[in-house]
Structure formats: C-alpha cells, structure tokens
Amino acid sequence: MTELLKVHGSQNSFFILDQTTLANELSDDQLRQLAKQVTDHQKGLLGGADGLLVVNHPTREGASAQMRVINADGSEASMCGNGLRTVARYLAERDHRTTFKVDTMNSNLQVRQADNLAASVPAFAVEISPVHFDKAALPFDHLGHDRLLGTMVPELAPQLTFSAIAVPNPHLISFVSQAVIEGPLLGELGAYLNGDNPYFSDGVNVNFAQILGPNKLFVRTFERGVGFTNACGTGMSATTLAFVLLHANQAAFNEPITVYNPGGMVKTIVHFAAGHYWIELIGNATFTHRITVGEAALHAGHVTADNSTINPTGEQEAYEQFIHQLPSFNLSVKD
Ligand SMILES: N[C@@H](CCC[C@H](N)C(=O)O)C(=O)O
C-alpha cells in the first residue's frame, strides 16, 4: 500500500504522489493517465483537482527531491508555485528539514518553512525563477514585438495592455478593471490561446489583475492545461513582477505584496539580484486528505473511493476560518 495526498495552495488543488515510496515507478504514460483520471472534476477522486505533483529522487546535486508537475489534461509544466509550497511541506515533514532545495524542470529552487498564515494554517515560502521576457522563452510569435511589457496587443484585445513573462512557465498578464476581471474575456482569451492559435504555440497561463491599492492586487487566472483555477502561484508571482516594473508608484522591489485570489491570499516579494529577477512566493500549504491505495491501482491509472481508503486531515476547517476574514471576491472554482 502507498499514500496519495490531496493538498492545496490557495485552493489550487493537487494530488501528491511520492514515487520514491513505490516498488516500481510509473511510466510517463501512466503518470499522464493517472493525472487525468484523479483530477477529473466529475468522475475523479474527491471532486478532482488541478494537477498531479510527482515527487522523485533528485536529478540535480544539492536538491532534496525532484518535483514534476502534470496538469489536469496530462500535459507537463515546468513549474507550479502553489504546488511547490505543498511539496516543500511534504518534504519538510518527510525529511525533518525546514530549508532545502527542490529540483524542478529548469533548476533547483530554494524553499523554506514560513510562519503559519493563521492558527493551523501552515505556510511555506518558495523561490520562483528563472525569469525570462523574450518571445523565444514563452514562446510567442506573430504579435509584432520581441517582448511584451505593458504593451498594446490588438491581436489579443483592443483596449488592454499585456505583459508576457516566463517564470519559467509562460504567463500573459493584463491589469484590468473589476468589470473586466469578472466578465467573459478572461475565459475567452484563455480558451483561445490554449487551443489552436497563431500566437502561443505551447499555450499560456492568462492572468487578469486588479490593482486594489499600494502593494495590493487581486489576480484571477485561466491556467494552461486546466482552465479557471482558484489561484496560480507562478501567475501571481509573474503578475507582481509586472506590477513592480509597470506601476512603480504602487509597488516596489523587496517589499511584501499582498495578492488576493479566488481561493485565498498569498504574499510575494520581488527581488532583483546579480542581474536576475526572482520572486519569493509565500502562502498556505494545506493537506486535506490522506489516501491509502495499492500500487497496482496507481499503475492502472484508476484510483477511486472504492479501491482506496480516504482519511480527511481536518485542516480544511482551519483554512476556511482563515479565508473567512479576507475580502470576498466570489469567483472561486469548487472542487
Ligand atoms: N497552478 C500552478 C501552475 C501549474 C502549471 C500551469 N498550468 C502551466 O501549464 O504552466 C501554479 O501555482 O503556479
């Protein structure tokens, strides 16, 4: 028997599978199949999720473990900020460490245990990097620019400006009004740019942000490989970098920025050091269920309430108390 964990960061929800505990690792096809099956919002496990986070032995020196990110549609992403916080907590508890590095697709990233966000709401801080702006890194094409930073892009939407930032997964960001954030455009643009389109050949995570005041944002994201999510950690990190670069009168480097999202709230701190941008993302790492399941069910890509034992952790109640005192934006996606 082995254990799957159901977890979330700002209610961006995942299953964690630690392959180092298995007798035999799953093949990439089996991981894709398992991700699609358990995350399905209708027929999946526990109401589904946004992705599967796979823990492996590290491939780079200096890291405690490797994290792979499989989106709900089975595609693989280079990074996941909310997911990394939950994997950081999992590894901190597994290895009895509070600060260490996690091997992700493009680099080792520093993580650390942070102060609880509230009573019984554990939090972790993770490094979001490397950052790229060039069109080859996203990638994007046919938009008449080599990079987008507060740039008018009539091909995407006539009235809005856009920034394109890879952290290193690709993000498109626009600062918009409350009416636009609540309206249909984000869903339409997200679906278009993640389907067959001439601009973003690998798809892109689309983030709309509302400036609420100095150092304060609300961000809503349409995620590549997923659709609308309650929050996207790399999206909020990339958006705060754009906030600092484009709205210097309202946000600054090295200062905490509060980012509300439909699932809760995180803090980010944007840094520029040795010629490179990086962002620290700080937020909850909540475990909602422990699922005990036989390895054969994992290999078959078929984990259900009938062939597993599901134990709620009780942490969701504390998380809900925490978000109850936050401003309400009424845009959450239910599991
Ligand atoms: N939810 C994540 C991002 C997950 C990957 C994304 N869908 C992609 O394909 O790039 C986060 O918290 O960063």
TrEMBL record:
InterPro entries: DAP_epimerase_AS (IPR018510), DAP_epimerase_DapF (IPR001653)
Pfam families in alphabetical order: DAP_epimerase
Subunit structure: Homodimer.
Location of the protein in the cell: Cytoplasm
Gene behind this protein: dapF
Positions of the catalytic residues: C80, C232
Single annotated GO MF: diaminopimelate epimerase activity
Highest taxon, organism lineage: Bacteria
Keyword NADP recorded: no
Protein name per its UniProtKB record: Diaminopimelate epimerase
Main location: cytoplasm
Chain segments annotated as coiled-coil in the UniProt record: none
Physiological role: Catalyzes the stereoinversion of LL-2,6-diaminopimelate (L,L-DAP) to meso-diaminopimelate (meso-DAP), a precursor of L-lysine and an essential component of the bacterial peptidoglycan.
Family: Belongs to the diaminopimelate epimerase family.
